[in-house]
């Protein structure tokens, strides 16, 4: 099954890479970003500090410190501001650039949180459609196992609906 959806804490997963919903500074924050840095320990932050910055929609990679994953791919989602600031394209870019980075590092399994749907307030249904469509499109040409990791019930329900009958 190349695409699955689960309800879980992403830091607990044993996959090649987990994706972090970071901010431009890469210095950590709240939400899933805070949890990843807390569980992964200081080496992730050290590597992020060396990288220094990530543009919205782009992605960078570090090792995963104390986590069971091998890598953390940090991507920066758009802040929702009504859809007038290219948010849709930027969110697509987050998924696509994270997947490209995964392929470049020979990663075979990757877990995504629901990027931008927390602090950054992207409407959940729209964000889920973008995530699912972008991933589906990408894996047509790449051999990757993708796990959507939902944390709240609403996202879990939306992803299940969107992926029903897919696998
Ligand atoms: N595992 C999986 N998903 C989680 C976890 C977890 N342990 N914890 C929260 N989520 P957010 P954003 C979900 O706010 O909207 C940070 O301060 C959460 O339920 O983490 O992209 C950064 O530094 C939500 O569905 O990320 C940025 O400043 C999803 O992760 C800013 O927040 C994303 O919520 C990024 O905001």
Can you give the mean pLDDT?
Answer: 97
At the third CATH level, what is the topology name?
Leucine Aminopeptidase, subunit E, domain 1
Oligomer: single chain
Q: What ligand molecules are bound, each kind once?
A: ligand AR6
Taken together, the total number of domains comes to 1
Q: What can you tell me about this protein's structure?
A:
The chain has helices at residues 31-40, 42-51, 87-104, 124-139, 153-163, and strands spanning 3-7, 17-22, 59-63, 71-76, 109-112, 145-150. It has 167 residues and is an alpha/beta fold. A six-stranded mixed β-sheet has the order 1-6-5-2-4-3, with helices on both faces. 39% of the residues lie in helices and 19% in strands. It has one domain: 3-Layer(aba) Sandwich (Leucine Aminopeptidase, subunit E, domain 1), CATH 3.40.220.
Fold blueprint:
Blueprint: E1 3-7, E2 17-22, H1 31-40, H2 42-51, E3 59-63, E4 71-76, H3 87-104, E5 109-112, H4 124-139, E6 145-150, H5 153-163
Parallel strand pairs: 1-6, 2-4, 2-5, 5-6
Antiparallel strand pairs: 3-4
Helix pairs in contact: 3-4, 4-5
Task: Identify the notable features of this structure and list them briefly.
167 residues; alpha/beta; Leucine Aminopeptidase, subunit E, domain 1; 6-stranded mixed β-sheet; 5 helices; 39% helix; globular; binds ligand AR6
Briefly, what is this?
With 167 residues, the protein is an alpha/beta fold.
């Amino acid at each position: 099954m190349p695409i699955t959806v689960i309800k879980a804490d992403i830091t607990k997963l044993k996959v090649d890479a987990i994706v972090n919903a970071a901010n431009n500074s890469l210095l950590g924050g709240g939400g899933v970003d805070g949890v990843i840095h807390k569980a992964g320990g200081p080496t992730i932050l050290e590597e992020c500090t060396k990288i220094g910055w990530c543009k919205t929609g782009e992605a960078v990679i570090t090792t995963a410190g104390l986590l069971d994953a091998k890598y953390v791919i940090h991507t920066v989602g758009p802040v929702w501001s009504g859809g007038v600031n290219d948010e849709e394209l930027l969110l697509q870019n987050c998924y696509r650039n994270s997947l490209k980075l995964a392929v470049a590092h020979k990663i075979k399994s990757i877990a995504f949180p629901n990027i931008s749907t927390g602090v950054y307030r992207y409407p959940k249904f729209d964000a889920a459609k973008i995530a699912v469509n972008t991933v589906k499109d990408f894996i047509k040409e790449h051999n990757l196992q993708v796990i959507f990791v939902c944390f709240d019930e609403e996202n879990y329900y939306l992803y299940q609906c969107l992926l029903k009958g897919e696998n």
